[in-house]
Amino acid sequence: MTTKDIVLDHVSIRFGSYTAVDNAHLTIRGGEFFSFLGPSGCGKTTLLRCVSGFSEPTEGRVLIGGSDMKGVGPNKRPTALIFQNLALFPLMSVADNIAFPLEVRGISKKQRRKRADELLDMIALPGVGDKKVHELSGGQRQRVAIARALAVEPDILLLDEPLSALDLKLRHHMRTELRAIQQRVGLTFIYITHDQGEALTMSDRVAVMNSGVIEQIGDPESIYNRPKTSFVASFVGETNAIEGKVVLQAGEIVTLETPVGHLQGKAAGGRRYKNGDPCYLFIRPEQLEVKSGLEAPNTIAASVVKEEFEGSARILFLKANGIDMRITRVNRGASDALANGQALVCAFDPDHATVLPHGPLAGA
Amino acid sequence: MNKGTGGGAIAAGYSLLFFAFLFGPLIIMVITAFNSSSFPRITPWECFTTEWFDELFGNERLMAGLVNSVIIGVGVVAISVPVGLAGALALSEVGPKVRAALYTVLITPILIPGVVLGISTIVFWGGLGRSVGADYGSIFFDGMFLTLAGQVTFIAAYAMLVFLARLQRFDPTLTEAALDLGATPGQAFRKILLPFLSPAIGSAAFLTLLASFENYNTTVFTILSGNTFTTTLASKVRHGTDPSLSALAVIIIAVTLIGAMVHEAHTRRAEVMRTGQAARSKVYGNPVLSVLAHPVMVLVLLVAMGGGLAYKASQHDARACKQQILDDKRALQEKLLEEQRERIRAQKAATPAPAAPSSGPAPSSFGGAFNPGSLAPGSAPAPAAPATPKTPSGFGGAFAPGSLKPN
Ligand SMILES: Nc1ncnc2c1ncn2[C@@H]1O[C@H](COP(=O)(O)OP(=O)(O)O)[C@@H](O)[C@H]1O
Ligand SMILES: [Mg+2]
């Protein structure tokens, strides 16, 4: 499968003085489901258009299957892009849409129709070939766009936030479906999204981007459990961020002085800190436990602001010395609701808290 | 109608006036085309006739102009539509700053008076011709070519505006998708953009053809010694009008009406087909009515109807009626002449010798009846007064000098 590897070799893309993608350097393996995850405007689409051939990198190279793609137009690359708005051809029937890549390659009408029908079977939409695109539902159009992209068996499928226009339920359904299609056809998928849920559930590996910079690449678990920057820690999933200064490091365990007392966490990536370094301590809401009364090391005294009931879980909003925090508690049926304003103490295991150098937070 | 506002009657009256204002002249024009009176008018109604159509088609200068207009029109469409399309595509490709500048340049010919365009076209091509040593028989001094060149300069900009409006609704990612799926830029243009633009190509072709056909300001200069339909018409109107122009109006109105009805049939059908309600529709669900309502069928039917009417009317012979009218006129003249003689005789009897010179013109065969002054009330020969009450009624100005001439 190495022939389908995609290498971004120190790729930077600039518009005038504005750097949309800054020194992206990574290898996507053939057959991999690879996601770029980042907030809107961070340069994901720009990077994808560069891979598909609609723009050239200002610096660096894009290699597909080992060959430099410089000067190779989008119609000559072994990639197929699924546009954010799908870009189905409104004047053509569904079958003509799917067969378009075959039509421009001069394949006979009969063969085109046969292939279109095969692909319609594959996406579980048999018999809609003669309909017009606008007669299909959102999810059906989604699948037609995928079938069209797969018609000439590209090596790499590029998807630009393909689910963002769908409603929540369909979005969840299509996640499973996309992953299933990818495993069935065995292609490389490069998937772009600002939705961390999508990235984590579908991908083999995820690259988290912030303002043009790729901050971390890894499998979903390591991205979620072992973030390497404060941005990744705060963008992927819910977290509590507590600012502080290093007072002690003993092996991997770092002690911070914070507005809510001395707290301990793990230094991500075995990093060494000097005393006084500004840092963040990140604790996931599900790692915090409510311990009424007891004062112990690694505990935070807080008061209840409100509690939200979400069915499977309760989300407890707290205030600790001016810092907003939240705790997720699995709903076990018992009515353990807490009164607003009630004082409590929450505790956590230092192994499940991450200490990272001070840096930008997502949405801040 | 909203009776609550009390505007029902006023609104209805206003609408009536409005439509009378819009269509009154057209209706009158149509009627005058069939009146044998040599001046376009409704009253007095003389005879129903189709001879003005014969007269129209028999006008060689006008027909030659029509041929010229058609040739120029086809040429203008053939050049303006691609040029306008190219301009619109260029505008949609370039950056915003260049676009603003380019747009101004491309749109300027529309803003420049046609007269100026006409003159500058002659000057430019003439200058070019002389500089390459071409003689006066060459293309640089050919009215048809100059008109084509002059008209294209601004009509192409009309076409461009039509395409720009359509292009604004085009989603450029469709072209990108086509490229991404393996189409060459040429294929993407032919298979994606061109089909999207095809309604605009139709509109642009129609608009440019009309603009070319009806253009006067520029053409009157660039056509040089030649003539087009429009310039011929203009000079004809200047030299006095006759009902053959009404006949032309009838033809134009008929063509427009047929075109409008066919277009309406087409849009209704397209709308029903698009929303997929054909099966439920009363007209389009019925196999016979559906065929009848097809735009091509509508066109065939209307043209057949028009053709039938025209054939029937062309068989109509107005000679007998016109002879009758002529005889009536003669009789009336005789009568008036007789009355005049009576008066003169009576005058002579009353005042002997001195009065005789005052009725000097009388010796002409038509007596004083054709002297316009003699009909004016209160004019010189007082005894003529009894004749005056007759004139406003009946035949009006039928006796004005020259009005009989074209018959
Ligand atoms: N053609 C362009 N010219 C100038 N700036 C651009 C262009 N395309 C994108 N940008 C800028 O680059 C940044 C990244 O855009 P994009 O890649 O579309 O982000 P996203 O991650 O939401 O897909 C944005 O700030 C955008 O304004
Ligand atoms: Mg985007």
Mind explaining what this structure looks like?
The complex is a heterodimer of chains A (364) and B (407). Chain A contains eight helices and 20 strands. Chain A is of the alpha+beta class and 364 residues long. In chain A, the strands form four sheets. A six-stranded mixed β-sheet of chain A has the order 6-7-8-3-9-10, with helices on both faces. A five-stranded mixed barrel of chain A has the order 11-12-13-20-14. In chain A, strands 15-19-16-17-18 form a five-stranded antiparallel β-sheet, with no helix packed on it. In chain A, strand 16 and strand 17 (313-320) form a beta hairpin. The longest helix of chain A has 18 residues, at 168-185. Chain B has 407 residues and is an all-alpha fold. Chain B has a domain at 52-242: MetI-like (MetI-like fold). Chain B contains 15 helices and no strands. Chain B is extended, with a radius of gyration of 31 Å. Classes of the chains: A alpha+beta (364), B mainly alpha (407). The structure holds adenosine-5'-diphosphate and magnesium ion (MG). The site of magnesium ion (MG) has 4 residues of chain A, from helix 1.
